[in-house]
């Protein structure tokens, strides 16, 4: 479903907005003014008056202000295009959007979470193919891979706005207290560090398995290390999981989990809600680290006692696994974007898509949401060391995969997530995970 | 109205033998009476039609239509966007019936039905007997027992899920009281979690049962108890021979509500165990199965088919219960109704 993506994106847009609001985002206003000039060249299309409705999910703070300003700036540069912005609470957005699209009264522009849902919308003919309207200027600053992540059969259905790769978010203080001076680069080193941290009296790894997808991240990363890029990509279309690397990934996770690295009661710990959630445990120094996407700094920041970004936060990538077929340095990461409805005015909506990809708008996006922007020029203004590390690891990765539950679609993705939780609970074995995923693939 | 009920009570004895034998009952009525009913009937019917039309329209639009649509979508591999086009016949239904996860959800529903009846029934009768006596603080006790039922499921679920965490209040209390051996993983251990759920359900719904039982008790004439006491019956004899039999109709109605509620249980499980791990923890129900395999999996056609199965199971149970258990209580009220 991307239920996982739903929740992840809620983190991104909803919660990061909070963090951004707290962290101070004074810079976005000036950059947006510059942006309107930059995009002004594409002109007002045919000159007829067009109104576009626009749904996003930032109901508070800097995120909401960012989209209001972006829409107003766009109208200033394209006087014949009015954008009616509507912020819809994140958890309500998907259902409302689905109903509206089916009723033929959907918005012209809306948040796109990709994956199975995007495929279902495209199949139902509800999305505009924006391949032809993407300008060369946009292609220059938005990486091909990011556009490809929002494409099906060579047709692009959404404009990416943020990259959200995964890795370990950790507290430098807790690491120091446990006597850890360098970040682990292999799973064996990670295991040794886990024991050191536990010895120092803190939970080592926070895991919110109640939401299933955070637990499944562990399997995705082991699969990324064990399986070749080819196997991962082929599985997306063939929906067959008979390569032995899938089983090996499950075995890796099972033996890693056997060392009890996770917080007690992780099966009923949620990911992002309250101080007792996995992000909350990191925010309050009750756990040393969490494997999560790049929206996590904002989530952690919103759960610290003073609601400010965690001062000693840092990041390292998922360690390498010896003997795996994955390319070392490969990374998993989601991409959030915006789609045009098939019924929207092609010229006006296309212009807006190109506009939100421009460098000044993307810089504003980063400042409002504290998330790495997808625009390569805008990435240069990122200041937080941990976000810089993330961007660096992302741009130098030899292979980038979307979160596997997104890649394999809602049905298989959901089955995969639940099966991984079953594995961690001891209810199934690595073979059971592969079996559950294959069974779901047959249903799809 | 009076004529109507008189007619049905006359018909009832003949009906017990023949299902749907309304015709023979009508013949048994005096001819004069039939004529008087018949002459005003077009007007009566018009009135009935006019007065019930708004309610009927709402009922059709918001109950019958959605049920019909669920049945329709259940035949498709539909992912929720656009029109349902991939007709798959009964494939969704065969998948449901073959899915071990559905079997265990069904089993959990069964356990919840049985333990709701077995625990809450006797407990609520005892408490109702206790609260039915004159004593100090009676009203306060009644309120305290009823409060959990009034609190929203979301609040109850959130509260218990926080208290039952591994490092939550319940384990903390056990530790402090010296019962360290009793500390356990209340929510995630599959052998414990289902009992945790049944415990929360009992805590939440026993107050409702007590209130219903109390209402039943108050309907029993005190003269009967007094007469029995004069004849030398002990307190327990009176309860066993008089109170319990007379409480029968109340008990049967409560059990009916309890069974249907238990079959459709969703909110407590969903809130305490979340969207994903109820099947891992062994607390899934048919309704949580419907959501996780329907909406969460983006398989809306499949989810609709599960909804239909859940509806049919509840309907069959309700009909069987009405036919065989509630029959004597509802004669002339629910099962009568013919002319």
Summarize the entry for a quick read:
The complex is a heterodimer of chains A (444) and B (339). With 444 residues, chain A is α/β, with parallel strands linked by helices.
Description:
The complex is a heterodimer of chains A (444) and B (339). By secondary structure, chain A is of the alpha/beta class. Chain A has 20 helices and eleven strands. With 339 residues, chain B is mostly helical. Chain B has one domain (91-328): MetI-like fold. The interface between A and B is medium-sized, with 39 and 30 residues.
Predict the CATH topology of the largest domain in chain A: D-Maltodextrin-Binding Protein, domain 2
Largest sheet of chain B: none
Question: Which structural class matches the secondary elements of chain A?
Answer: alpha/beta
Kindly state the percentage of residues in helix of chain B.
over 70%
What's the helix count of chain A? 20
Described by the principal axes of the CA atoms, the overall outline of chain A is globular
Report the C-alpha radius of gyration of chain B, rounded.
25 Å
Biggest chain-to-chain interface with counts: A-B, 39 and 30 residues
CATH fold-level assignment of chain B:
MetI-like fold
Main beta sheet of chain A: strand number and arrangement?
Answer: 9 strands, mixed
- Give the percentage of residues in beta strands of chain B: under 5%
Pfam families (chain A): SBP_bac_1
Signal peptide (chain A): 1-19
Protein name (chain A): Carbohydrate ABC transporter substrate-binding protein (CUT1 family)
InterPro entries (chain A): Bact_solute-bd_prot1 (IPR050490), SBP (IPR006059)
């Amino acid at each position: 479903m991307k239920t996982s993506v739903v929740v992840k994106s809620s983190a991104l847009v909803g919660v990061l907005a909070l963090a951004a609001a707290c962290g101070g985002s004074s810079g976005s206003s000036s950059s947006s003014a510059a942006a309107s000039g930059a995009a002004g060249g594409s002109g007002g299309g045919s000159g007829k008056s067009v109104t576009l409705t626009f749904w996003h999910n930032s109901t508070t703070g800097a995120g909401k202000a960012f989209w209001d300003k972006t829409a107003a700036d766009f109208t200033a540069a394209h006087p014949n295009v009015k954008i009616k912005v509507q912020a819809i609470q994140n958890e309500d957005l998907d259902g409302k959007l689905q109903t509206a699209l089916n009723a033929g009264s959907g918005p012209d522009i809306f948040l796109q979470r990709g994956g199975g849902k995007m495929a279902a919308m495209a199949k139902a003919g509800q999305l505009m193919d924006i391949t032809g309207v993407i300008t060369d200027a946009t292609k220059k600053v938005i990486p091909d891979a990011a556009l490809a992540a929002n494409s099906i059969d060579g047709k692009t259905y959404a404009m990416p706005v943020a990259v959200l790769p995964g890795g370990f978010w950790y507290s430098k203080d807790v690491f120091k207290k446990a006597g850890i001076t360098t970040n682990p680069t292999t799973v064996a080193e990670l295991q040794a560090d886990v024991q050191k941290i536990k010895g120092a009296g803190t939970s080592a790894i926070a895991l919110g398995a109640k939401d299933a997808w955070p637990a499944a991240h562990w399997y995705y990363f082991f699969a990324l290390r064990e399986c070749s890029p080819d196997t991962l990509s082929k599985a997306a279309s063939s929906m067959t999981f008979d390569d032995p690397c899938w089983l090996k990934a499950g075995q890796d996770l099972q033996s890693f989990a056997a060392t009890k690295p996770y917080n007690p009661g992780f099966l009923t710990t949620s990911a992002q809600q309250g101080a007792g959630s996995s992000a909350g445990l990191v925010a309050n120094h009750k756990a040393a680290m969490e494997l999560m996407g790049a929206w996590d700094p904002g989530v952690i920041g919103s759960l610290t006692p003073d609601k400010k970004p965690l001062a000693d936060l840092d990041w390292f990538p998922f360690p390498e696994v010896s003997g795996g077929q994955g390319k070392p340095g490969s990374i998993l990461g989601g991409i959030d974007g915006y789609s045009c409805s098939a019924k929207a005015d092609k010229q006006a909506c296309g212009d807006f898509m190109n506009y939100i990809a421009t460098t000044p708008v993307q810089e504003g996006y980063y400042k409002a949401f504290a998330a790495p922007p997808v625009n390569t020029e805008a990435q240069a203004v990122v200041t937080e060391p941990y976000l810089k590390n993330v961007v660096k690891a992302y741009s130098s990765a030899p292979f980038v995969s979307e979160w596997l539950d997104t890649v394999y679609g809602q049905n298989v993705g959901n089955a995969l997530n639940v099966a991984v939780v079953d594995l961690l609970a001891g209810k199934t074995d690595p073979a059971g995970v592969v079996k559950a995923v294959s069974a779901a693939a047959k249903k799809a | 109205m009076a004529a109507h009920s008189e007619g049905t009570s006359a018909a009832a004895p003949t009906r017990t033998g023949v299902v749907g034998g309304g015709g023979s009952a009508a013949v048994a009525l005096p001819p004069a009476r039939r004529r008087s009913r018949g002459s005003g009937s077009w007007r009566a019917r018009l009135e009935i039609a006019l007065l019930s039309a708004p309610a009927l329209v709402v009922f059709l639009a918001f109950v019958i239509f959605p049920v019909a649509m669920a049945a329709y979508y259940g035949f498709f591999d539909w992912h929720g966007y656009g029109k349902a086009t991939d007709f798959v016949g009964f494939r969704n239904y065969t998948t449901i019936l073959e899915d071990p996860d559905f079997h265990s959800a069904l089993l959990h529903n069964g356990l919840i039905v049985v333990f709701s009846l077995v625990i809450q029934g006797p407990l609520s009768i005892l408490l109702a007997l206790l609260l039915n006596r004159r004593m100090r603080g009676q009203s306060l006790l009644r309120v305290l027992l009823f409060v959990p039922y009034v609190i929203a499921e979301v609040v109850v679920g959130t509260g218990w899920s926080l208290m039952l965490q591994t490092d939550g209040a319940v384990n903390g209390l056990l530790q402090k009281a010296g019962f360290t051996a009793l500390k356990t993983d209340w929510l995630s251990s599959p052998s414990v979690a289902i009992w945790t759920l049944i415990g929360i359900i009992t805590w939440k719904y026993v107050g409702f049962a007590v209130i219903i039982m109390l209402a039943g008790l108050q309907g029993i004439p005190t003269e009967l108890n007094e007469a029995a006491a004069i004849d030398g019956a002990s307190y327990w004899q009176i309860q066993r021979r008089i109170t319990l039999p007379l409480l029968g109709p109340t008990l049967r109605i409560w059990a009916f509500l309890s069974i249907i509620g238990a079959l459709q249980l969703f909110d407590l499980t969903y809130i305490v165990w979340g969207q994903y791990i109820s099947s891992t923890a062994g607390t899934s129900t048919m309704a949580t199965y419907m959501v996780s395999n329907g909406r969460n999996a983006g398989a809306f056609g499949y989810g609709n088919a599960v909804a239909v199965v859940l509806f049919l199971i509840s309907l069959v149970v309700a009909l069987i219960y009405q036919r065989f258990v509630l029959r004597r209580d509802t004669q002339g009220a629910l099962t009568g109704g013919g002319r």
